[in-house]
Design goal:
elongated, nine-stranded mixed β-sheet, P-loop_NTPase, 13 helices, ATP hydrolysis activity, 3 domains, Beta-Lactamase
Length: about 450
Amino acid sequence: MTDDSPFGAQPFDMATAKALNQQDAYQQFKGYLHLRLIDRVEEIGADFAELSRGAVYRFVSLELDRLMAERPYPLNEKETEVLINQLTDELTGYGPLETALKDPEVEDILVNGPREIYLGRKGTLEHSDLVFQDEAHLMRIIYRLLDATGRRVDESSPTVDARLSNVGRINVVIPPLALNGPVISIRRFPAHPLRAEDLIEKATLNAPILQFLEFAVRARCNILVSGGTSSGKTTFLNVIASFISDEERVVTIEDTAELQLQSRHVVRLESRPGGHDGAGTVNVRDLLRNTLRMRPDRIVVGEVRGGEALEMMQAMTTGHDGSLGTIHANSPREALQRLEILLSFGGFPGNESSMRRQIASAIDLIVQIERFPDGRRRITSVTEVTGVGDNIIATQEHFRYEPQVNRENKTVDRWISTGINPRSPKLAKYRPESSEKDQFGWLE
């Protein structure tokens, strides 16, 4: 279906919509109208998939005149406009979520039952006035969302994680696991992947760090991006992967495909969950094993979080250097510790000492990214793995984030260069272009 207008024939008043959404009587009336419209659609055999949004809007407007003559409800002109648009969303889109899904600034949509919806913008969450009529209404939208993914959810399989094409990643949990009603978590894909210059503009890092990482990627360093939930790991991984040459064959492996590499020779792989009995499951580890037979120059793993860490470490040390991935950890040291745990899960055949040597020989750099309470995302450390000493993985930090408070009591971004020369032979030819003050702080 084409979409010739974001909201139909006319934009509606958001303040009016907010006031109406908080009225139980209005929600009940809208639910009644929705059911009557569905009956009418079935009666005339209309196929809205072939119609533009404007055409459906006009259909709803005409039918509403007839239905409200049968069952009057006090609405002024602005309120009627809101009602027509909301009913159009029910018939053609995702109901109350449609407005949020069309807002390019919304990064996350979190639904905690029918009456509680939060929207994430620029790293922070805000409570929304959007509501569902009841749990049945919410479940109808869940089924519609999942129809596009080919997945299903019910009491026997009450959780699902899937990818909505061109929208984002969706996770659903329903009763009996969700005690307060069905839960939806949608992580939006950016309409346009961020570029390196966008990270500078957003002050995620400064120019010298970006220059260093670009050199490291081109020099085929194996790099892990480490960070917490919603810190921006995948987005940052996507940016630094853009430094890979178009002449190289890159295979990406993800549980839910989010990476949008712009390289010319990219093969994208996505894991597949099995049925109720687990039959047909293809996990990230299976994909990684198969990837080694696909002649990749580089392997990019969306997130290393299971036994696939073993195959990834082995790949990095057996001809597939220059590979990239992310890991969930709050510091470079914690990332290394987590790798040890994951290698154990994967059945690493050696002892602790040999495991640490394997990690040290595989990983060249760990880039730490952090999301702050106000939504800012910053690279807080760039750390090189240099070897093993006294059975401890040795590291040296090249850059760290040390913000300062200025005279106006405002936080000023500041990154420090430790001035230590890289130990890796891959970085032996690295020479910083400048040590002068850049846009976001001194390189000291």
